User: Fold this.
Amino acid sequence: MSRETEQTSSAGKAESGPRKGSLDKDLEKLTHIEAASRTLSSGMAPPVLAGLFLALSGTLALFYTGAGTNNVLIVIAAVIGGYMALNIGANDVANNVGPAVGARALSLVGALVIAAVFESAGALLAGGDVVSTISKGIIDPAQVPDSETFIWAMMAALTASALWVNLATVLGAPVSTTHSVVGGVMGAGIAAVGFSLVNWPTMGAIAASWVISPLLGGVIAAIFLAFIKLNLIYVPDKIAAARRWIPLLVAIMAGAFACYLSIKGFKRIWKPDGLTIGAITATAFAVTWLIMKPVIHRQSVGMENRNQSLRRLFRIPLICAAALLSFAHGANDVANAIGPLAAIMHSAQFGDVAAKVDIPLWVMLIGAFGISLGLFLYGPRLIRMVGVRITKMNPMRAYCVALSAALTVIVASWLGLPVSSTHIAVGAIFGIGFFREYFTGTSSRRKELVRRSSADDEFVSNAEMTRRKLVRRSHFMTIVAAWVVTVPATALISGLIFLAISFAL
Assistant:
């Protein structure tokens, strides 16, 4: 080899440098995520932008309703409703995209953009023309003595629920915004009329959902993770298994979302019957399975027989699942911000108490864009909590969480259970973590394959597993405690706010 050739070769090596190991790459990705998060949520920008949005919400209400005593109440309610929408975006949306960020299928900024777009689309396209003024039917509007009492009760409920969700976000606890509104309405109703106003059987069902939601989500997620581990990860030929099973798993996801959106997501556009919903679900399943079989086969050509290859194959389905979850969430949970606002507006304008009211477009816009803005300004904190800090995620585990969330809501709808999407998603994450702890220590198939290949990147020794649990107990206890106290805390806050208003008037 000539001297010139040697120099060229040496220069090429110097330019390329040493190859980065997996740990270095992961640390670099985490650095980018943290930098993006600090850029979005540091300094005075978030409170200033949030303040501008609230001012715009009040101005929009004033423009559409005009000046007047009762219309001032609508303007105040619009500001509080905008504040609630910001808090929903900051706290609740993390459940949809957090696992995808934790699995590194999405960057933090990419997750924020996808969630904001699909949350807004879900709220505006499928949020419903009519919403219930009394969340989950927990109080009887016929017992409310007059519209003025009802207005102040709804105002107190909306304020209390927004304050509680804000506090939970600061503490890093993902809570149910639906349960926050339920507690707020209950507390204000009791303060205004008395305990007889509350539908206690309904409240009992809601209390039962505190246990049912996370357990059901955790069990379904653990079942799917067990299936993936036994049929894709701990098998000799991972690529052949992926070609067989990943199209089926993606088809189940497509069918579940088609069913979910048919039942709950397109109330504003279309209300299909049961037979039509079944046909839509079966069609979505079959079409997706037929499409994904050649797609997965083509993507897997030339891949190594490693878990990293499986993670790459799950990446795109996981991103699609996060987008669909965001759409469904926006369609259903925007009512937590605009339901009480619409109720206040109706009572202020017409002087009566209605069980259901129409939603003007400007009210829907406050809810939709408030959720998206709250996600951008304050969402990264809860996204990191849900996606990274509870337990370690990868695309397969995150996909199980998304699949569990969709299936659990469908099962709960059939059973008539008032479950929380937040409790389901976070319960699924806990289920994933606790199942991994169990499976790692007890699976004979895993131990056999680990003995055959010490290069298995899923391997964690039993000694290491004993040293560090896969679910962080401190976060587990904080979140469970926040769930338990959400309804009584918001009820107490709402009742005190209503009494303060009554005393001031």
